[in-house]
Amino acid sequence: MNDLEQLAFEECPIGIVMSENRIIKSCNGTFATLFGYTKKQLIGESFQILYGTYQEFESIRDIGIEHLKSGGTYSDERIMQRRDGQRFWCKFRARTLTPEAPLARVVMSFAAMTETPERVSLTPRERQVVRHLSHGRTSKEIAQQLSLSPRTIEDVRARLLRKLGVSNTPALLAKLTSIES
User: Fold this and answer.
1) Transcription regulation as a keyword (predicted)?
2) Which residues, at least 6 apart from 170, have a Cβ–Cβ distance to it below 8 Å?
């Protein structure tokens, strides 16, 4: 990579990272800064350090794998965790370089969307439900995906509405995904 290409990679306004089997192999400075680390601290580390819990790290693994197997790009919005424990919403995109083994070598981008309100702490289950809600899924669909009852999902949704002081799901998602100022 020549100097100009390296500069473009480093100064890109979104975080870019290359992983092999969920291990960070290379990243730009924007990615490291977004998560509160230096590049040196991230290279060689598992992506697990960027998630709130091991369970969350494991549950996200296979989301989008079918898109990647077909050679496509996968994109979603997810809650990530910075080094200091602060949670934030980000736009995530991935493309595999090895469709036959999608996680063997993946290029990803991360762009911060919002900050989760500091006074609100979401449980791992609440984060799962919010992620599904952000994809427009119904309580019944979420329940099937998570092997729970629709009533459990409704209870989690009601708890989220109370926590964030909103009256409906669109307002909940708007509050969580409003653009940073």
Assistant:
1) yes
2) none
Interval 131-160 mean pLDDT: 91
The dihedral sign for the CA sequence 32, 38, 40, 41? negative
Residue 177: pLDDT over 60: no
User: Where do the domains of the chain lie, and which CATH numbers do they carry?
Assistant: 3-115 (3.30.450.20), 124-177 (1.10.10.10)
Q: What does the alpha-carbon distance between residue 69 and residue 98 come to, in Å, rounded to a whole number? A: 8
Amino acid at 163: K
